[in-house]
């Protein structure tokens, strides 16, 4: 099965609402694709991006919102 990587040079990026406001730990995501969510480090906008399928990204965001990914 061939996986086609989307062209990311023209997408619109937005900073995650969970990103640290002092310039550290920032990620940006794009909502430009119906089935994929590209994610990149805002400090390296020309660097690589990770691609997540929408259900996987939604599951991750849900876990973050519940606090399920942070140790007690």
UniProtKB/TrEMBL annotation:
| Domain DUF397 as annotated: residue spans | 12-65
Q: Name one Pfam family in it.
A: DUF397
This protein is called: DUF397 domain-containing protein
- What is the organism field in this record? Streptomyces glebosus
């Amino acid at each position: 099965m061939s996986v086609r990587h989307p062209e990311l040079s023209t997408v619109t990026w937005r900073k995650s609402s969970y990103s640290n406001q002092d310039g550290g730990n920032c990620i940006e995501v794009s909502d430009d694709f119906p089935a994929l969510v590209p994610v990149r480090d805002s400090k390296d906008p020309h660097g690589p991006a990770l691609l997540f399928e929408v259900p996987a990204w939604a599951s991750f965001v849900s876990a973050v919102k519940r606090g399920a990914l942070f140790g007690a």
